[in-house]
Amino acid sequence: MSLLLFDALLCLLLLALALASMLSRQLTHAVILYVAFGLLMALAWARLAAPDLALAEAAIGAGLTGALCFTALARQGAPAAALKLSWQQRLWPALFVLLMLTGLLQALLQVPASAGPIPEMVMLNLADSGVTHPVTAVLLNFRSWDTLLELLVLLLALLGTLQIAPVPTQQTSWRLSRSWSELLAPLIILLAGYVLWAGASQPGGAFQAGALLAAGAVVLKLNQQLSWLGWQNIWIRLVVVAGLAVFSLVAVLAWLLPVPGVNVVWLRWPPDYAKYIILLIEVFATLSIALTLTLLVVSEQPATQLSLARENETGAGND
After folding, report:
1. Distance between CA 225 and CA 135 in Å, rounded?
2. CB of 52 within 8 A of CB of 204?
3. Quick one: pLDDT at residue 77?
4. Which residue from 171, 163, 159 is spatially nearest to 301, judged by alpha carbons?
5. What does pLDDT average to over the chain?
6. DSSP result, 263-319
């Protein structure tokens, strides 16, 4: 009964924070409420026995996205005068949330009571997947398209962000903040390595490990401790693209070089080599995801784009 009450209060708090964030008239308060919403959403995923999603939500939904929103607020300059909204205009976001909630409840009521045949099929083929965790088997063997397209979406998002990235400026950081980041950086690397390795047999994997590394890299970058981490560095570019490139290359090789006695299926790995293939993909995907998420938050204009902007400013000044 106590857990049921806790879950009910958690759902009510999520709805209240969502509405408060959407209806807030100050952007700073809206971002703070959004970060709080992300933390409670991570707790909700944990209550649903999905610790991998809870970890990703806490690192990305509350951490990196919150930092990205605060960075955007800091770069927008002086805030404009708050607009006075009528009660009808304030009602639309609330109606939108209620409609979304109604749709989710309706979809929930239509979920069949039985699990269906898919979990059983996954468990029957789990021995040939190369891992012992069903979620990892689905995302990196049975339905590898999902993970491959996620890497592609992240890469496209980064390329789009670089086109509108701000001009780099000289910033200073607190000595205490720099000391704490130096202390926590090795711990984050160890934790990310464990999460990556544990993904074969329990919740974890490349995306969660990459999110942890990105969170640590963002803190270090904001403290001016990773001067080499930027799109101008050719090695950073190679690692960012390596996740998608290695995934695609392994898929092509597995398709062109079939193993005798094994049916050739696109993005399905031979059972004898699946474990090593998945480990190879996840290592490069982890590094690619970590750098991509980091650059999405703290990206700056590339050197070529910055030089063109300065040339345009110089030309305009001479005119």
Report:
1. 36
2. yes
3. 64
4. 163
5. 81
6. ---TT---TTTHHHHHHHHHHHHHHHHHHHHHHHHH----HHHHHHHHHHHHHHHH-
